[in-house]
Design a protein that fits this description.
alpha+beta, 4-stranded mixed β-sheet, 3-stranded antiparallel β-sheet, 6 helices, 26% strand, globular
Length: 217
């Protein structure tokens, strides 16, 4: 397994590399197909959280990544590795996803949960669909909407239809709390989201064409 370390605006001391090698030694046991790990250490000129560590595991299929930003690069390394190991264990010990028949949450409750989770994960630049074989076109559209201070970043993701189980696994790999996908079973745009522990929810979008078909029988 190859480990490539890159420093941005910072020198990487031998002690850091040794600690990195020691912490990542458990990766092959959890993910034997990982053949390369990229580690990027960035010093950002800000008052707090100035040391960022990003770890990306490359294997056949989707990548697995984690990052952390703290005042000390060694602490950031430990935090990023802990996140990475948690995601690797989730994939290693993954459970089958079943479509439960419990009463689902309302859309308002689900979207409120997603918004709260997204605020905590805003520093993670990899969004749903960024990993795997799908192509991502980042249009990089920034700017205020009229006189509003709101800024919008737009991305277009292309991906083949997948099962709900695959969507959950993809979400776990990138460490997000929600994942947009094309459900192969329902042929609808859908979002799977994390609830508690191993519990998940899924929202399906019914298009106008779907509604018209349903109305006419």
């Amino acid at each position: 397994m190859e480990i490539v370390v890159t420093g941005r605006h910072v020198q990487i001391p031998d002690r850091f590399r040794e600690q990195l090698d020691e912490r990542l030694a458990k990766v092959p046991a959890l993910a034997p197909k990982v053949h390369r790990i990229d580690v990027v250490v960035t010093h950002e000129r800000v008052a707090r959280g100035s040391e960022k560590v990003e770890i990306t595991c490359h294997a056949k299929g989707p990548v697995i990544r984690a990052e952390a930003c703290l005042d000390d690069k060694y602490a950031a390394l430990d935090a990023a590795v802990d996140k990475l190991m948690d995601r690797l264990r989730r994939v290693h010990d993954k459970r089958k996803v079943s479509r439960g028949r419990r009463i689902p949450e309302s859309v308002a409750q689900a979207t409120a949960r997603i918004d709260a989770s997204a605020n905590g994960a805003a520093t993670d630049d990899t969004s749903a669909g960024d990993s795997g074989d799908g192509r991502v076109d980042d249009l990089e559209r920034f700017g205020a909407l009229g006189n509003s201070p709101i800024e919008v970043r737009e991305k277009i993701h292309t991906a083949a239809p997948m099962s709900l189980e695959d969507a959950v696994n993809q979400m776990e790999l990138v460490g997000h709390d929600f994942f947009l996908f094309h459900d192969a079973d329902t042929d609808r745009p859908s979002v799977v989201y994390r609830r508690r522990g191993w519990s998940y929810g899924v929202l399906h979008l019914e298009t106008d064409a779907d509604a018209a078909v349903a109305a006419t029988g």
